[in-house]
Write a structure and sequence with these properties.
The protein has about 260 residues and is an alpha/beta fold. The protein is built from 8 helices and 6 strands.
Length: about 260
């Protein structure tokens, strides 16, 4: 029997190129069926109570999950869940070629969103079958017209025979306060940003949260997370040579993809 599958996507970093901009821009996608969604909802509610998030406000990584203890607690709770699948797509902006999508904020967003869409719908097919009905819920970006992005994703997916776009039931951009699962996607995005974006007075990264989330990251039949669960641009070495990557020498590390 076919089932409904839900994909919640949130951004990490920004698309800017100024000195104050983030060094990375990417997205975290959380893929669940109805049972997995209920598990995420319960965890988010538990975290909201623990972190004293007022009703009507979003459980935001930046605002409510700032310190190590809170991040570790959120990672511990999420790491215990079964039936939750995560895909990451991100770019290190300084590594991208001049004149690429890095220099056009709208193009940059749409390209990352499409790569995330592909990773998520492939995950849905692999985990739930080709007859699953997939509902995409991207996080709405304030002041951004998502109409062209939707058209771009659908055009590209229809043109690629490898993308099972027939599974798409809906493709929408929603406010993070509408779904607890969207807030969970924000937390997973935070795990990635903490691992790859040096911050604080000493420019340190924190990889333990991403390591705790590792079981949920999408793997292929051979157990490899690249490129299905981890898609780093412009080349995979940005993941494979990181201290949190667990697989030792990876034959894909030298492949440039953007």
């Amino acid at each position: 029997m076919s089932r409904d599958v839900y994909v919640y996507v949130d951004e990490t970093g920004d698309r800017g190129t100024s000195g104050s901009a983030s060094p990375i821009f990417g997205m975290a996608a959380v893929i669940v069926d109805e049972d997995g969604a209920k598990l995420l909802q319960a965890v988010v509610q538990k975290l909201r109570v623990a972190f004293k998030v007022p009703d009507g406000e979003v459980l935001s990584w930046k605002r409510y999950v700032k310190n190590h203890d809170r991040r570790k607690y959120a990672a511990q709770l999420l790491s215990k869940l079964n039936g939750v699948h995560v895909c990451y797509v991100w770019a290190h902006k300084d590594e991208l070629r001049e004149g690429s999508y890095r220099d056009d904020g709208k193009r940059f967003y749409n390209w990352v969103a499409y790569r995330t869409y592909k990773a998520a719908i492939w995950t849905a097919k692999y985990e739930y079958g080709a007859d699953a009905r997939v509902h995409f819920r991207f996080g709405h970006v304030k002041g951004f017209d998502h109409g062209p992005g939707k058209a771009y994703i659908e055009k590209e997916s229809q043109a690629d025979p490898k993308v099972p776009d027939h599974m798409q039931e809906s493709l929408r951009w929603v406010s993070a306060d509408r779904y607890a699962e969207s807030q969970a996607a924000d937390l997973y995005g935070g795990f990635l940003s903490a691992a790859i974006w040096p911050q604080g007075s000493f420019g340190m990264t924190e990889s333990m949260y991403l390591k705790m989330a590792w079981p949920a990251i999408r793997k292929g039949p051979n157990g490899c997370a690249i490129p299905l669960g981890l898609f780093a641009m412009p080349d995979y070495s940005l993941a494979t040579e990181s201290d949190w990557f667990p697989c030792g020498e990876c034959p894909k590390k030298a492949r440039r993809i953007a």
